[in-house]
Design goal:
alpha/beta, 2,3-Dihydroxybiphenyl 1,2-Dioxygenase, domain 1, single chain, elongated
Amino acid sequence: MPSITPHLWFDKEADEAANLYCSIFPDSRILETHRFDNTGPSGDETVMTVTFEVAGQRVIALNAGPQFKFDEAFSFFVECETQEEVDEYWDKLTADGGQESQCGWLKDRFGLSWQIIPKLLGELLQDEDTDRAGRVMQAMLQMKKIESDVLREAYEQPVTA
């Protein structure tokens, strides 16, 4: 069976990004680093690729120059058990130039998109009571970082006749 590994194109920050991601998520580590031998995009000896695991997912990061940039068409989805996890990952990934977006999405300082989502959101959105699920959806659409307490309030809101 083939393996599928996300391959991320960076200008020249592959090793910095890999180290950041490994420092944030448990079960993460650098597996190997390959270097250009004075033939890299800058002409210097630089890191070519970094293969790493982030939260157990194998990823390859490539330094290949500024031709391509990340966009929201690709993101890492991080399902969190607790609001504390959401807060921690959100804060660390938006630090030092990262950008908040809507509905649990953000871009880290390298421009890579992440979805930091509490498991609770999926549970509440899948409720058979469509009114409750709809209130949760409307609450989520107003948020940048997803706040579990606000989702619960929307879910438990009494129905007025």
